């Protein structure tokens, strides 16, 4: 049985394990569910949103910290959740709370702590790149792109747990199957969380590097493919085979702009703010 056949068999077993409750997909954090429901209801008040966010003191404190940073602040010092909400607006607050809560969830995942920290920081770097790239195209929602960048590899977390339970697999094989299957598992998890379809597609297709939608302008999947390549580079490692190759997503996202790594200082500050205690 070749690697692709084995991967299909593993995916079938994973789906069966989920159906039998032998592998439980992580739940979307309650604060995310409540905040998203409130902000999408059409009649949410600042007071209601402040009350919900304040029920999670760690997220409330981090939101104020991010809102009071040089990245987000518009000349007004921020010292409370209410000020952060007024300054940032409901849509951005919803995005930030979602990202902060999911970072907490990721941080509690099992496995190698060093590898997990690299996973979280890599997701934040790619998230910031996705935001930066999407801001060049008015029809794209930069905050949605940023959330998709954070979540594009989320399938690795339940998949790693499942692969650890397969004694016949060597360490190298687990890594290979993780790379092959995590886009499918990520899309499955985001659908389980009832996330927007654009985020599901970003998770599902981000490793299809030479994908071409046939349209001249980038979509959200193009943005995350480009961000991945910019983050990891093509000089060595997993994407080295694309060095010197014309990648449609990169061509669309970088046409007419400086192709140097964008907003590096913003990326570093976001990572520090969102991962520091």
Overview of the molecule:
With 277 residues, the protein is mostly helical. It has 2 domains: 27-108, no CATH class; 115-277, Hypothetical protein af1432 (Orthogonal Bundle), CATH 1.10.3210.10. Helix content is 64%, strand content 0%. The protein has helices spanning 3-19, 30-39, 46-54, 57-67, 81-88, 90-107, 113-134, 142-151, 156-164, 171-192, 197-205, 220-232, 248-254, 264-275. α4 (57-67) packs across α5. The longest helix is centred in the middle third of the chain and has 22 residues, at 113-134. The protein is globular, with a radius of gyration of 19 Å. The termini are far apart.
Q: Strand fraction band? A: under 5%
Low-confidence regions: 259-268
Distance between the termini: 47 Å
Measured on Cα atoms, how large is the radius of gyration? 19 Å
